[in-house]
Amino acid sequence: MNTRYPTARSQVGRTPPAHQLSDWASPASDRLSPHYPILHVRPPYTPGATTVMVREVELSKIVPGSVLALHVSARNVDWPTCSEAVRNLRRRLPAVPVVLSLGPDIEDGLFLAGQAAKASVRAVVAGNAPLGESLRRPLTTTTSIGIDVVEWLPLFGLRLSPTLNHLIAQIFTAAPRFTEVGPLLKSIGAAESSTRFRFRKKSLPAPSRWLQAARALHAAMRIQIDPGRSILSHACALGYADHSALCHQMKRIFGTTPAAVRETLGWEWLLERWVRSEVLRAHPGA
User: Fold this and answer.
1) Are residues 101 and 171 in the same domain?
2) pLDDT digits (tens, 9 = 90+) for 76-108
């Protein structure tokens, strides 16, 4: 039986141009060798066409929507080594979700799922289930999006105070319910003026900019989880005036369109674009 263990937690199908590869990996090497077989799952996530088992990750093959699955079997299961491989992949490729694919000979899948959650593995898939559709729900859930984003930001060298982390997590968690940042901050007991000061002091985008990015990210994940639903319907559900308003916002924030997002899974590649263009430009050392 195939079992999925969810953890607590465009240019679709096109290789990024050479001048954009710095967005996807460190220039130190064009390959990653994590000592585990890797399944590279790419849009459109059909097993025969895009799921390839490799020993090395060729960074030039990483595209928006790529997912890397470390394949663990009874012969190579060693959690300290595996967790280090996960950490290395996430550091080098913050735009790519990392998941675990457990071989059918693994008997302690629940234990590994618990350990994987601590290492920020996005999902654990066991058995012979096709990875593409098995990953749709865990990679598009918003249940812990605020916590996930705050845990992910340090991959870019950002070190924020507990107070700022809390505020950012609350903004991403509450974004679907608010179109303006003032009422959102009031709902969590935070003063708007002091919050703006905290963000400005650390050279971060204003809280309203984080809310715009968070709302667009929630819209993207709604589109991914239910790609058959119209873009207009998704837009209206989040308070956008119409299809065009959502398209404009997503293009401005992420540099892509809802139609392109529909073909992918995962939020990391989208938010990485915004972080690099809006956050890191004020933190050149990060």
Assistant:
1) no
2) 778 888 888 899 899 999 999 999 888 887 877
Number of independent structural domains in the chain: 2
Q: Is the domain of 19 the same as that of 124?
A: yes
Domain that holds residue 61: 3-138
Give the confidence band of 57 by pLDDT, cuts at 50, 70, 90: confident
3-state helix, strand, coil in the chain (%, to 5): 50, 10, 40
> C-alpha 255: how far from its chain's center?
16
CA distance linking residue 79 with residue 109, whole number of Å: 12
Q: In the beta sheet, which residues pair with residue 68? A: 40, 98
pLDDT digits (tens, 9 = 90+) for 6-41: 343 333 333 333 333 333 334 445 666 556 788 888
Write the pLDDT tens digit of every residue in 161-219: 999 999 999 999 999 999 999 999 999 999 999 999 999 999 999 999 999 999 999 99
DSSP class of 28:
T
Token pair of 95 as six digits = 């735009």
> pTM for this structure?
0.84
Whether residues 270 and 191 share a domain: the answer is yes
Domain limit, last residue, from 138, 155, 175? 138
Distance CA(42)–CA(167), nearest Å, equals 33
Distance in angstroms (rounded) separating the CA atoms of residues 48 and 33: 23
C-beta of residue 35 within 8 angstroms of C-beta of residue 85:
yes
